[in-house]
Every structure is written in structure tokens, then in C-alpha cells.
């Protein structure tokens, strides 16, 4: 019955702080010591005690030579107040746990079709082994919407080489990767393109946001190389069938992707005629979930999965 009265007081007054003050007064039997325990001024504790007296229609404590003496009403409420505050303290100080072997949930990644082809398979293998009841979903989100997608919890992580890191996101480098050129298997070129061949062929570039191209395309242009960009597309997976049908087409892609494409025997990897800078692949997440146990575990899983990835 006493616990019901305390809960009704909280419901009616909408102020858990009053219960905290009552708990401190019960323990300390002094407004001065209660104020010190709570980190408040003595006047604030006295004011709260006044509100408690009005809310419960009882003096609650009587001043005596030995300190504050609880009234019968306070003594009746004491077990419920102490129990309630113990629950609150335990909940506030307990660390939520994430048990990947037991939990059932879907982890969602923002990644391109290239990420799905190259990076998703090793992540799936690791997840199946360590979190057998969890599932995966990939989302292809425009770069302008990545931050809000992560903030809303619609996605847990974004993995890729973002041209401009959305403001406010955390990031962690996974590895760096070089770029190679791919051509059709029957393209009339050798294992290394000459600059003249490179400039004479029609180029396919990938642009995820509809712009001219990616960061490595800009790097090529900054080297003074003249290219005829015949097709701009947001889809990496479109490249191999296009090159197979059009041997005069050429594309420059991350090496890992070129290696996967070459396994299907429709394209082959050749060395570009110019040196290209390496680019970083990172995972990104929103500060809202920086301390979330599930997100912490997932980031660790991703980092460890690619810890020994070939540079």
C-alpha cells in the first residue's frame, strides 16, 4: 500500500526529484547532510521538503534535539521509498549487455552494390558464426541522406569510401585500397595499358550521387589525363556485362572489385598507365549510438573482419 502511495505521488507531482529528497532525508535525518548527499543547497532541500509535506498532507519529519524524527506516515512510506530508489540506482548504474549468441535482431548497413559484392560475404560468415540468430539488411542510400538514416536508427553503420564525410558522424578506417583498370577479356590491349590506349578508349565511371564521378576519377583528371567518359552510372555491377559487349569500353575500379569481376571470366584486370592514389574504406556511425552495446559489438565485428584485409 505504501508503494502505491509513493507511485501516486510521483504520478500526481511529475517529479522524481521529490522522492530522491525524501530518500536522502530518511537516510540522513538532516537537511544539511541530505543537501550534501544530493549536491544541492540546503534551501533547495527545505523547499522540496515543503512540497513533499503539501503533496502528502503530513509534516513527515519533526525537529528534535537528535535531528529530524520521521512521523508515522514517513515510517510507513520508508520501505517503499528505499526500495524504489534502490531500483533506480541499480538501473542507472548497471551496464546493458549485448549477448550476440542469444539476441535476435536485424543489423542494417548502408553500402553500395560494390560493398554487397565484395565486403558483405566475409561479414555474413562472421555474423553467422558469432550471432547465429541475427540477420542482415543492406540499404543503398544517397550520400546526402546517410547521416539522417544513421541518426534515426534505420541503419546501424555506413561502410564505404565517402567523398565527403557527413558532418557529425563518427568514423573508423578499415583499410586502404588501390585501383585497377578492367577491360573485356578480348579487348585488344596488353597487361598494362599505354596512356594512348587509355585515352582512346571509352570510359565507364560510377557516380553514386549523380555527379561527374568519384574521388579517384577526379584524381585521374588532376593528372592531366584526357578521357572520354561514355557512360556515368550509379551501379558497379553494370560494368562487366557492358564491357563484355563493348570491348572498347574501360573502367577503373577498386582492386577488390576488379578481382571479383575477373572470376566470372568476362573481364580482366590490367594495370592503368598512371599511378593512382589509394583510398580509405571506413565505417561510419551516428553519435546517438556511440555507446549502444549492440552498435559497439557490430563495429568491433566489422573492424576485426577486415583487420587482415590485403592492402
UniProtKB/TrEMBL annotation:
Keywords: DNA-binding, Transcription, Transcription regulation
Coiled coil (UniProt feature): none
GO molecular function terms listed in the Swiss-Prot or TrEMBL record: DNA binding; DNA-binding transcription factor activity
Lineage: Bacteria, Pseudomonadati, Pseudomonadota, Betaproteobacteria, Rhodocyclales
Stated name of the protein: DNA-binding transcriptional LysR family regulator
Family: Belongs to the LysR transcriptional regulatory family.
Signal sequence segment: none
PANTHER family: HTH-TYPE TRANSCRIPTIONAL REGULATOR LEUO-RELATED (PTHR30118), TRANSCRIPTIONAL REGULATORY PROTEIN (PTHR30118:SF15)
HTH lysR-type domain sequence ranges: 14-71
Pfam families xref list: HTH_1 (PF00126), LysR_substrate (PF03466)
Amino acid at each position: 500500500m505504501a508503494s502505491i502511495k509513493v507511485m501516486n505521488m510521483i504520478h500526481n507531482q511529475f517529479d522524481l526529484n521529490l522522492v530522491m529528497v525524501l530518500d536522502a532525508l530518511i537516510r540522513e535525518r538532516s537537511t544539511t547532510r541530505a543537501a550534501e548527499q544530493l549536491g544541492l543547497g540546503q534551501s533547495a532541500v527545505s523547499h522540496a521538503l515543503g512540497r513533499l509535506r503539501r503533496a502528502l498532507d503530513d509534516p513527515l519529519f519533526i525537529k528534535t534535539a537528535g535531528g529530524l524524527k520521521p512521523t508515522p506516515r514517513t515510517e510507513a512510506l520508508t520501505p517503499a521509498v528505499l526500495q524504489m530508489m534502490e531500483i533506480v540506482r541499480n538501473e542507472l548504474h548497471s551496464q546493458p549487455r549485448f549477448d550476440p549468441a542469444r539476441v535476435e535482431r536485424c543489423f542494417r548497413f548502408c553500402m553500395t552494390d560494390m560493398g554487397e559484392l565484395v565486403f558483405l560475404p566475409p561479414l555474413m560468415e562472421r555474423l553467422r558464426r558469432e550471432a547465429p540468430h541475427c540477420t542482415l539488411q543492406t540499404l543503398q542510400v544517397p550520400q546526402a541522406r546517410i547521416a539522417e538514416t544513421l541518426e534515426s536508427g534505420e541503419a546501424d553503420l555506413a561502410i564505404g569510401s565517402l567523398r565527403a564525410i557527413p558532418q557529425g558522424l563518427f568514423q573508423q578506417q578499415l583499410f586502404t585500397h588501390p585501383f585497377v583498370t578492367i577491360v573485356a577479356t578480348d579487348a585488344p590491349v596488353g597487361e598494362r595499358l599505354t596512356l594512348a590506349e587509355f585515352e582512346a578508349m571509352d570510359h565507364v565511371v560510377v557516380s553514386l550521387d549523380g555527379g561527374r564521378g568519384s574521388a579517384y576519377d577526379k584524381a585521374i583528371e588532376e593528372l592531366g589525363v584526357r578521357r572520354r567518359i561514355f557512360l556515368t552510372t550509379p551501379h558497379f555491377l553494370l560494368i562487366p556485362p557492358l564491357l563484355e559487349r563493348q570491348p572498347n569500353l574501360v573502367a577503373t575500379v577498386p582492386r577488390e572489385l576488379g578481382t571479383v569481376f575477373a572470376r566470372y571470366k568476362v573481364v580482366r584486370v590490367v594495370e592503368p598507365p598512371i599511378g593512382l592514389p589509394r583510398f580509405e574504406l571506413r565505417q561510419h556511425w551516428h553519435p546517438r549510438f556511440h555507446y549502444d552495446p549492440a552498435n559497439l559489438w557490430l563495429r568491433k565485428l566489422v573492424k576485426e573482419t577486415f583487420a587482415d584485409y590485403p592492402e
